[in-house]
Every structure is written in structure tokens, then in C-alpha cells.
Amino acid sequence: MGTPFFAVPPLKALIESKHSIVAVVTKIDKPSGRGYQITQSPVKKVASEYKIPILQPKSIKTPEFEAELKGYNPDIIIVSAYGKILPKNILDLPPKGCYNIHASLLPKYRGAAPIHWALFNGEKETGITIMKMVEEIDAGDIILTKKIYIEENDNVGTLHTKLSHLGAEAIIEALELIESEKAIPIPQDLSKSTFAPMIKKSDGAINWSYSSDNIINLIRGMNPWPGAYCNINTKMIKVLKAQKCEEVHATSFPGIVVKMYKDEGPVIKTGDGAVVLLEVQPENKKVMSGKDFVNGGYVHIGDICEKVVFEQNE
Fold this sequence. Notes:
There is one protein chain. By secondary structure, the protein is an alpha+beta fold. It has two domains: 5-192, Rossmann fold (3-Layer(aba) Sandwich), CATH 3.40.50; 201-306, Formyl transferase, C-terminal domain (Methionyl-tRNA Fmet Formyltransferase, Chain A, domain 2, Roll), CATH 3.10.25. It has eight helices and 15 strands.
């Protein structure tokens, strides 16, 4: 059971393993892109390629879907970013249980956006947890964990790719343990649990009074989606990459453009120092380097970078 690109490497690993996939469950096709064309999920495309039966229920809480799933008589159900919460009757259906590939080291970062929040908080490591699913979200016993270091240049996009492949490795190892009855379920320590709620576009509004580290972590944790934003000269700018600028100790207010590096980008005062913008996307323009942003005359010393105010539901 899975939907986006994150679930594709685990699906392919299962296809190439000794195990038999009797069916794939994925979310219904939806319109996307500028033309709002109906698009299949990445998981559906792979399942179609390998001629695996595909189920796309609008609701997984109906007796009809439960009966359809029972008809496949699965020993076990693997879930990877499916996008829906499984009810108890589905969790109880396979004799070996349902197992989730979660992109954090549980009990830290339970919830929908563990990769984003690990970067926001400046974590140095993260990983994959294979967990037996229960009714409470991401609260089940841990079967296996695999760790990786978070590198300084990692963002949501790069970390997402690394973790999806790590998830593929982890689920194959976990299945070996489960099948051979060597799996030792470890209850989660509830006192150490933290949450990673769903991200909104408005979470990407840059507050320049924050520390340089916090701002850079926000930019990393919002790249590529939904993006970190600020207004410069009333134009909204998406900031994709930045780094600390140690040599600038300006006394200006946070948000002021205090210097211009023609080979790097504009330098913005923060709450405790400054950062240089290395990659940006001006409103209605293509992504460009900070160098091109400066040399193209989009920004000048003394300009004020303001926090974007989004609509409430964005």
C-alpha cells in the first residue's frame, strides 16, 4: 500500500525479492499540473509495468473494499506513504500483520512530515523505522531501524531520495526477520515521542529575526516543497539555498540587505548574524543562482526582506 515516489524503491525491492506481491493498493488517480490532467500515482505506474493487480478504493473503510482485500488472502501488508489511515479491520486482516516504512527514528517525528521536521530542527541523523501498525498513528512496536547521517547540504528532496532507498533495504531485512520468526518487537518509549505534523505553504515564511541556523534549516526543510519565502521590494521570492555569512557583523535590523557578493548572492541580516542567498526563484521567474539574482538587478543594498503573509489555509 503506497502512493508517491517514496514508496517506489520499496515496491521494486519487494518485486525483486523472493516474496510475491498479490496486489498493490494506491490512491485514486487525480488531476495535476497546469493542465489538470488525470495522473497515475508513481506506485500505480510501477505496478502496471509489472502487471500486478491494482486496487484504488475511494474509501478503505467500506465492506466492499475489505471483501476485495480478503479475496487476495495476504499474509502481510506493507505500507509506505499510502496517504490514508488504516482502520482496525484492515490492520487485523493479514495473519502476520501490517507494517509501515516510516521515515524517522521512532518514537521521534511521528506523523506526516518527518523529513521536513528533522531538517527544521537541525538533526544530525535520521533513518527508517519498520513498525508493526496499530490504530494510533506511528505508535506500534519497532521491528527494525536503519540510521543515516544528515549532511549539511541535504534538503527534503535529497533526504527523501536517500530514505526511500534505505526503506527498500529495511523492509527486505524486516521481512526476513518476520518470516523466520526472529523479529523482536520493541515497544516505543512514549516519553521520547515527538510529532511531525503536515506542512503548509505558510510554514515557509522566513522570519529574518530568527538565527541564521534556524533560517537555513527552514530553507533546507522546505526545499523543494513547499518552499521558503520572503518579499523583497514587494515581490515574493522563493529561497532554495543559503549559507551563513560569518564575516558580516552588521548592526542593521534583521531583513536588511547589508552586502552584495557578485559571485555568490545578496547578504541578508538575521537575528544573530547574516546569510547569503545562493539559489532563489523570483516571482514568475525561473530558478536562478544568487549571483544571477544580484547581477540581474533584482536586489540592492538597503532593500528590506519582509515576511510573507499567506492566506490562512495555505
